[in-house]
């Protein structure tokens, strides 16, 4: 029997009805940020129900005892759990009140996952006799029948009714009968199985995707609202959002009057056409931009977004702009471009205008706010413009976990720019095609997909350049020179270098040598370094090494120096090839898929200022009979590229687009484009992670910190270890995560390698390794010897 509570608590300092009111207020505030196309009257009603029902399970005596003093609670942890009970109370009322099936599923899904993740359906129909426990575990976070029985019996439904203004007519009549409670639970499960799950399975694919996205929107709003007024110290900070009006005219001021060159004239022609299409096609939902490398896509995309933003119906809450990029080096230069726009507009403090969200970024929204306030506002992507990675964007779009889904509603009523989309794996083509289409319909968003080599995976996109061939035909900056009839060993390549290095240094050229593996790049880098020893006449020409053997801090420093335009030799892996704004005289590239070859070509004679074409030599390097390209890239991508290039000795820049069209069309036929992943998403079934789809299965790796690159980091890490509160300690680790990533080297190891050989563990069982002295240098990166340590 219930002991009874004169007032039910949700948190130690907060009554249940007070928390529900807070969640309702925060949800309504978040709804105001979105259009009426996204937040329909029906969606508003479902959100109101979600706010009321999400914490009903806290009414048990067990939870009330726990919440008085959480640290001292000695009871059974499953008895005080509340999510599973909230789900079943909701199901019972939904059945009793004859809710619309889809409405019920939206509410139940949001409640079920608000402390973990969205639930998944079994691929087979869940039984409700023999598999009752299985069904409850899926939708009630592991609760079982006996737990639910005890919890229901402990509730004073008269008090609960007065707290939440709901009637529990059916359930309160059976609360003292375990048999009747079990029967009621089975009825709820039957409603779940025969109605809710069946309804989802019977939807057409596009309809199922749209429904899933609507559920995610409600879930996302509820997740943020559930924490909002608890996480920030002053509710006014959260509820009163500043309106920062970015202006497209800043871009014109930023461009100014550039020098009259062929490349700048081409950029202006492209810009004029893009601006005209934006003005005439504002009702289009998905756009694409295929343009030659160096066309100024960053500012073209900003023009698209800011002009559409200025024409929004909602002046007080204009759409967020979300810029999605694949590589940290590209993010850094893109962030700098947007900061320059702010400076043109007279904005000096950019933290509230612009947020960078990735593993190396600072977790600061406003330096005057508390740590907790900053953390929450950064996590919820509060700013007008978000610049983030593919990982973070796709996690928020597709992954079911609460920590990612809390951001999902920001993808609705948004202007989303995805650059370098050629880097997306084929297994994401079909999922993103259909999900993007429904996101623009359900969420009222607009997308711009960009690349010099655009894969054809999104249908019905409005091109910002109607005939990109016209612009590619005017580009005569480079030539791909193919040396693919024979292969060459790495030793033979180094001997060949010896005959050319003197000319490169004497002519003071800017040369880029790009390889497919860290091992091959490191060997060439060391060979060149040894060759130049004693040649004092070349001492002023630097040798840069850019690979994952080098910390991000050193890589970004090197890229900044390369951008200065002085003579240099650069040895790299493929991490430099896409989007990094450097301009080289000569490039030599180990064989790779066609889109990679074209991306690296965009780093050669980028400004088109040379009298003759820049040369990109494509060679085929082997190691003991196996091509390095085959160690890294997909076999189909490589074979399609070889077939297309078989008859060529040279490929001119103006012929690139025709080749890439053939390349991507053949890939779409020969490759798995991900229908099974689309189906699993639409039907709420478990799937592999987005991280695995992006990068494949993770290999064993160690992360080594080059601690001397951040002298105060070690002491800060030691102080974090002394924090007793687990949540405060976790947040402290998040604050230094960017600093740690900036000075770290990730190593994929072979059997027989032990990290103790080159590092010591920071603290036992932390998994953090501090690199020993002598195993890293700023110019060489990680320094190791012996094949068992090669990665």
Automatic annotation (TrEMBL):
<dbReference type="InterPro" id="IPR006483">
    <property type="entry name" value="CRISPR-assoc_Cas3_HD"/>
</dbReference>
<dbReference type="GO" id="GO:0005829">
    <property type="term" value="C:cytosol"/>
</dbReference>
<dbReference type="InterPro" id="IPR054712">
    <property type="entry name" value="Cas3-like_dom"/>
</dbReference>
<keyword id="KW-0547">Nucleotide-binding</keyword>
<dbReference type="InterPro" id="IPR001650">
    <property type="entry name" value="Helicase_C-like"/>
</dbReference>
<dbReference type="GO" id="GO:0003724">
    <property type="term" value="F:RNA helicase activity"/>
</dbReference>
<dbReference type="GO" id="GO:0051607">
    <property type="term" value="P:defense response to virus"/>
</dbReference>
<keyword id="KW-0067">ATP-binding</keyword>
<feature type="domain" description="Helicase ATP-binding">
    <location>
        <begin position="278"/>
        <end position="472"/>
    </location>
</feature>
<keyword id="KW-0347">Helicase</keyword>
<dbReference type="GO" id="GO:0005524">
    <property type="term" value="F:ATP binding"/>
</dbReference>
<dbReference type="Pfam" id="PF00270">
    <property type="entry name" value="DEAD"/>
</dbReference>
<dbReference type="GO" id="GO:0016787">
    <property type="term" value="F:hydrolase activity"/>
</dbReference>
<dbReference type="InterPro" id="IPR027417">
    <property type="entry name" value="P-loop_NTPase"/>
</dbReference>
<dbReference type="InterPro" id="IPR014001">
    <property type="entry name" value="Helicase_ATP-bd"/>
</dbReference>
<dbReference type="InterPro" id="IPR038257">
    <property type="entry name" value="CRISPR-assoc_Cas3_HD_sf"/>
</dbReference>
<dbReference type="InterPro" id="IPR006474">
    <property type="entry name" value="Helicase_Cas3_CRISPR-ass_core"/>
</dbReference>
<dbReference type="GO" id="GO:0003676">
    <property type="term" value="F:nucleic acid binding"/>
</dbReference>
<dbReference type="GO" id="GO:0046872">
    <property type="term" value="F:metal ion binding"/>
</dbReference>
<keyword id="KW-0540">Nuclease</keyword>
<dbReference type="GO" id="GO:0004518">
    <property type="term" value="F:nuclease activity"/>
</dbReference>
<comment type="similarity">
    <text>In the central section; belongs to the CRISPR-associated helicase Cas3 family.</text>
</comment>
<protein>
    <submittedName>
        <fullName>CRISPR-associated HD domain protein</fullName>
    </submittedName>
</protein>
<keyword id="KW-0051">Antiviral defense</keyword>
<dbReference type="InterPro" id="IPR050079">
    <property type="entry name" value="DEAD_box_RNA_helicase"/>
</dbReference>
<dbReference type="InterPro" id="IPR011545">
    <property type="entry name" value="DEAD/DEAH_box_helicase_dom"/>
</dbReference>
<keyword id="KW-0479">Metal-binding</keyword>
<feature type="domain" description="HD Cas3-type">
    <location>
        <begin position="9"/>
        <end position="228"/>
    </location>
</feature>
<dbReference type="Pfam" id="PF22590">
    <property type="entry name" value="Cas3-like_C_2"/>
</dbReference>
<comment type="similarity">
    <text>Belongs to the DEAD box helicase family.</text>
</comment>
<keyword id="KW-0378">Hydrolase</keyword>
